[in-house]
What we know:
The chain is an alpha+beta fold. The chain has helices at residues 3-21, 32-67, 73-101, 122-142, 172-176, 263-290, 329-333, 338-356, and strands at residues 112-118, 146-154, 160-168, 181-187, 198-208, 222-227, 243-248, 253-257, 306-311, 316-319, 324-326. The protein contains 8 helices and 11 strands. The strands form 2 sheets. An 8-stranded mixed β-sheet has the order 2-3-1-5-4-9-10-11, with helices on both faces. A hairpin with a 4-residue loop joins strand 9 and strand 10 (316-319). The chain starts with a helix and ends with a helix.
Amino acid sequence: MNLDENLDRVLRRHEELAALLSDPGVVGSSKFVDMSKEYSDLQSVVDAINAYRDGGQEMIDLAEMIADDSSDKEMRELAEAEFRELKERMPALEKQVQLMLLPRDAADAKNAILEIRAGTGGDEAALFGADLYRMYQRYADLHGWKFEVIDVTETGIGGFKEASASITGRDVFSRLKFESGVHRVQRVPVTESGGRIHTSAATVAVLPEAEEVDVDIETKDLRIDTYRAQGAGGQHVNKTDSAVRITHIPTGIVVQCQDGKSQHKNKASAMRVLRARMYEVERQRKDDERAADRKDQVGSGDRSERIRTYNFPQGRVTDHRINVTVHKLDRFLTGEMDEIIDELISADQAEKLAMIS
Length: 357
């Protein structure tokens, strides 16, 4: 199906939905909400299609005016100037339409579960893990998203062995989904007296938060253990068994939460993480089936893949998947990450466009 046929298909569907939404038999039905959302989502695409096609028709009209020797010379010159300007704009209008027609990741609109684990590097890796956690918290703040701590396992010097959070807001997963992987840091550790640069790493996982309808979890498949929450260094932070560990027996997935003061809250948080992990496993399986013999330009999302290096002596951040380096490490760590995130999204879109062209 060529571009024009695709555009016609979208316009027809938009008109069909408009007619259905005005049908008294549909108004108030169970389908009405879904149709309204689809109609609303298509409106921006229709606007872009109309702008693109209006531009194409205007170019035809201007070309006819330019070719008409009987028309006024001054009018032809104005038409030529408008034609040149429009010709420069048309590729951008066409690309915008093509991007809007790309199939969206079904998880893009979802909220996200963020998980960070210290990797190689001991205490320094845990300190870096804490830095990353705060970086994403600040990024969420800049975007007006809600950042809610689920669980944090601290070290005695302020590092995070493991930490998880839920991030809720508009387009959270679509902007954070390329953050999964190994993040490497190169710096002189605060624990190093000799002033030598060390390399350590932390693993980041960003999972789309699943609704209960997205994942079927049977109670009989769960083993739920409770225990006393532990603080940094092993001291008890309360005297009740409020911490919760849930094991999904068929898959072996284990999640735990001890940050909340109540067992009920910790169990609910742990179930959110469990659903997200199980949803991601199934999502990854489907992605692997669709892309069995190709590798995405921005990386596979495999958590074992090194995706980014934070070099403190040189004040730079390098994303290895797209070969982009920014020399503003301090600002990046305070949440100003959009420059690289926008590049990752653009690279993903470019690859998808190349696949359908």
